[in-house]
């Protein structure tokens, strides 16, 4: 995956390619009028550029849109299928030309550069206060600019699970973690060490080791109390010397130095690696339970358990998927009316259940909890949303992780550099990157 897409593994790995026949079925619906702002029937047109890929998720999105169109006498939403691999460039062109859709689908950190440049509408100015009352504050943390307002309406988030090889656990007498008895960091490491046999090509633990994934999206660094983002007025600084950041990277370094994690697996296909028997456990978003059964050559029987509990109960913001309204959109009020419909708890629960994701809305979580009844690891995934405590807003954060943080950190994990050298590089070049993104 590439950090230009925010390290969003599911979204990049599953969605960047061809969208398939199901996506074609969701191509633009309805006919636009000659002025481009109304339909042939005289309704106000709202174009929604969407990125739904999974068949069930596409179907759920279609149902929500069709239901809105059926009940509205004045507005018609036209869905325009896009892909995660091209949406960034297409929206950049749209912003430049001024020919923007009324709504588009994206993710929290990816919105920040556009928001900081005044290209997005502050949704707090368009949506009533009760639209926000049930949204988890931690999810809004990465979507709320100190000067530009709320850049997107979050509707899907994720929490991590630990997937494990059931046969290995049984053979070694290992009891998996439960919600009532979650493992600590030490328990995860000790169990992984017990199962690791690098001479036989078996490692105890696999994960996407990029910082944007393991440390910040899956929350290991936030659990440690990491605070690498500093803000003084409008000035941002990156400081990787804080105790939490160091503790989380030291933990990863120990996994690699003891060959609990595969030193060659920094950039590999971690799901396939687990499912073909090269890792005893896998850290991955809860959504991955929908991907795992599709791995070619899979030979592992698996189950999932809750993520570890850390020194702090914080899993960050949940890497929210969002709908946003461009500042140049012609029909903002109509777009906002659809957003209110889309954000109904039953609709948010529907789209999340189809995607294997988690609503950032407590009312929608209640609906999802009832409809799934804890099956297929929904109980663990839903319970962990209580730990979406948020992360600091920071322009340029995600690109900086890819260009500066990851190369320096990978050198430490591979044993070719030191933590002090990592911190020196990140503090200097990372600070320069986020300040440039913030225009300071």
Automatic annotation (TrEMBL):
It holds the Pfam family SBP_bac_1. The lineage of its organism: Bacteria, Bacillati, Actinomycetota, Actinomycetes, Micromonosporales. PANTHER family: ARABINOSE-BINDING PROTEIN-RELATED (PTHR43649), DIACETYLCHITOBIOSE BINDING PROTEIN DASA (PTHR43649:SF12). It comes from Micromonospora cathayae. Signal peptide: none annotated. It comes from the Bacteria. This is Extracellular solute-binding protein.
């Amino acid at each position: 995956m590439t950090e230009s897409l925010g390290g969003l593994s599911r979204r990049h790995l599953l969605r960047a390619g061809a969208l398939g026949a199901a996506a074609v079925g969701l191509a633009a619906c309805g006919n636009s009028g000659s002025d481009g702002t109304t339909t042939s029937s005289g309704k106000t047109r709202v174009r929604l550029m969407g990125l739904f890929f999974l068949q069930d998720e596409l179907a759920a999105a279609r149902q929500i849109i069709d239901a809105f169109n059926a009940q509205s006498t004045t507005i018609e939403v036209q869905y325009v299928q896009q892909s995660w691999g091209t949406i960034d460039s297409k929206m950049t062109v749209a912003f430049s030309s001024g020919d923007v859709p009324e709504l588009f689908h994206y993710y929290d950190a990816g919105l920040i550069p556009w928001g900081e440049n005044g290209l997005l509408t502050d949704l707090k100015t368009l949506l009533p206060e009760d639209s926000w009352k049930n949204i988890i504050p931690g999810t809004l943390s990465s979507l709320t600019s100190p000067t530009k307002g709320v850049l997107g309406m979050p509707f899907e988030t994720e929490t991590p699970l630990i997937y494990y090889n059931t046969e290995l656990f049984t053979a070694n007498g290992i009891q998996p973690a439960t919600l009532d008895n979650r493992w600590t960091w030490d328990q995860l490491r000790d169990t992984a060490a017990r199962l690791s046999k690098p001479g036989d090509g078996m490692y105890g633990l696999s994960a996407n080791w990029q910082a944007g994934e393991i440390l910040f999206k899956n929350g290991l660094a936030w659990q440690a109390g990491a605070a690498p983002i500093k803000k003084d007025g409008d000035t941002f600084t990156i400081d990787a010397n804080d105790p939490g950041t160091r503790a989380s990277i030291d933990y990863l370094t120990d996994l690699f130095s003891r060959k609990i994690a595969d030193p060659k697996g920094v950039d590999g296909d971690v799901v396939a690696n687990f499912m073909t028997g090269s890792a005893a456990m896998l850290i991955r978003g809860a959504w991955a339970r929908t991907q795992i059964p599709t791995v070619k050559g899979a030979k592992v029987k698996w189950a999932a358990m809750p993520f570890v509990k850390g020194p702090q109960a914080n899993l960050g913001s949940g890497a929210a998927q969002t709908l946003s309204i461009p500042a140049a959109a012609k029909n903002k009020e109509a777009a906002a009316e659809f957003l209110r419909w889309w954000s109904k708890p039953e609709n948010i629960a529907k789209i999340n259940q189809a995607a294997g994701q988690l609503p950032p809305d407590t009312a929608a979580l209640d609906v999802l909890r009832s409809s799934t009844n804890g099956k297929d690891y929904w109980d663990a995934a839903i319970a962990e949303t209580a730990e979406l405590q948020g992360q600091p807003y920071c322009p340029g954060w995600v690109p900086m992780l890819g260009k500066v943080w990851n190369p320096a950190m990978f050198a430490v994990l591979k044993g070719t550099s030191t933590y002090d050298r990592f911190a020196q590089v990140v503090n200097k070049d990372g600070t320069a990157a986020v300040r440039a993104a913030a225009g300071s």
